[in-house]
Amino acid sequence: MTLRNLASIAVMLAAGALGAVAANGQSSAPLPPGPGLDLINERCAFCHTTAQVLSVRKTPEDWAATVQLMIDRGAELDPEEQKVMIEYLAANFADKPGQALARH
Ligand code: HEC
Fold this sequence. Notes:
Elements: H1 3-23, H2 35-43, H3 50-53, H4 60-73, H5 79-92, H6 99-103
Helix pairs in contact: 2-5, 4-5
The protein binds heme C (HEC).
């Protein structure tokens, strides 16, 4: 993962999040949209809810370890999807704001 990739993903997600809030003011808890969120809804939400996954904050390393642990438990993700999901989680649900960008 490069800083440039991660930064552009973060910018895209931020832009998307603003659009989602404007377009979907009904949603009680708008989450940053993106392919990572779609994957979490599709592959992670049959054992626990997406909200449970996204209620925790982790360092990028811990997100990578958690996603790998969930794959060991039965989540189906190919390596590319795994990367997309970890980048999404690290960019939006880091335990300290900006940490994901600062480290990579
Ligand atoms: C086969 C069932 C299963 C699938 C699929 C699954 N999980 Fe989990 N997950 C669990 C169980 C069981 C727990 C609670 C036990 C624990 O905390 O270790 C859990 C707990 C968690 C937690 C809270 C505990 C922690 O480490 O902070 C997170 C976050 C999480 N899962 C993320 C994910 C993500 C992301 C995916 C999709 C890649 C996923 N899970 C898919 C079974 C699953």
